[in-house]
């Protein structure tokens, strides 16, 4: 019912020319006091606040760097504090605006529109008397790597780009790559990987998420400015080899070979080791920015620790069944709702029967009709085990996701939890078999399995709802024998 997950091994490698990440042609470092001011950036239809850090006593007009947020940041008070201050202390004016949030949601993000919003900040920087208007550099981290290339194309006056932990590939491909890497590190059973294309490849409930297939490559192929590409070798969420190679290839399409690549040993997504931004990275960044245009093609072109990337971040197979997340969610909610209504209907019927039991006894009426012996209990067992299995699967996915994000392992949860989910799934099927056997025996004995309209409809509803949930559980891998 869904595609297999078989990522392609990465055959390409990138040649690291030197261990030292120092930027050739970088000027001698200087140190200045830093003064900060807060400003308002007018945008189309709204405005955002921003913090500008100024080097006190540095030669003016100075180069400037505008910071573009990734997905995990949004306020200048918490984002880029270390690199912004380090650059300012080295003689570079820096600006960190708040992210515009009225047009930025989980289900809707327009990277081209976001780029145009950030260009308002570029213009504000250029109007500052401390800034050389022709020496504004754009620094983008993570998700910002889908925004900054658009800015560079739409404003060729931008001097250079710094792409830190840039995803490069479309968001859907990057998400699948990251999930795969995290799951492998967490040590999940192979059967779990098949859920990746089913989850990442389907449309999300409620619609939206069109940005999941945004392709930055056509924009990168039009970049004419120098680019500094930065990755940490400890960042499992990004295609750190493929990313640098693709940026070089894309810029070459525009006749641009001014690409400098730096890898920092053991650094994570934020170029941090032990929670602290790598000091040499801040020095290299300042040297590369201050040295423009001489550092645009400075040697070595690729330096630092040797990166490793096992698999290609490539297209995600699309599910053939249950591709629509709204349909999938509707099936689950519908199944649960149907079973709940059926239970409520039978319960109400029993209350009414008990309330009229005395009157029936006085009238020597027939005893109240019930399910054939053993049928009601096994219907409840089927519904209960199926629902518990579904809940257990959700618990397992959430628990593994937390371990994966924290880059941790826990065999009791990862391996033991998966065994528990599958055992519950088997119990649900056994319960269904027992119910079928009891119904068969009752019919053989001439008993009425489900007397009355309410009990007949309720029995059918429980069986149908449980069957739907069992199919959904099978779709997500509870019953599969291999990957």
UniProtKB/TrEMBL annotation:
Regions crossing the membrane: 327-352, 379-398, 418-436, 457-478
UniProt-listed Pfam families: BAAT_C
Protein name, entry field: Prolyl oligopeptidase family serine peptidase
Keywords linked to the UniProt accession: Membrane, Transmembrane, Transmembrane helix
InterPro entries (UniProt xref): AB_hydrolase_Est10, AB_hydrolase_fold, BAAT_C
Domain BAAT/Acyl-CoA thioester hydrolase C-terminal: 121-272
Keyword Amino-acid biosynthesis: no
Keyword Kinase recorded: no
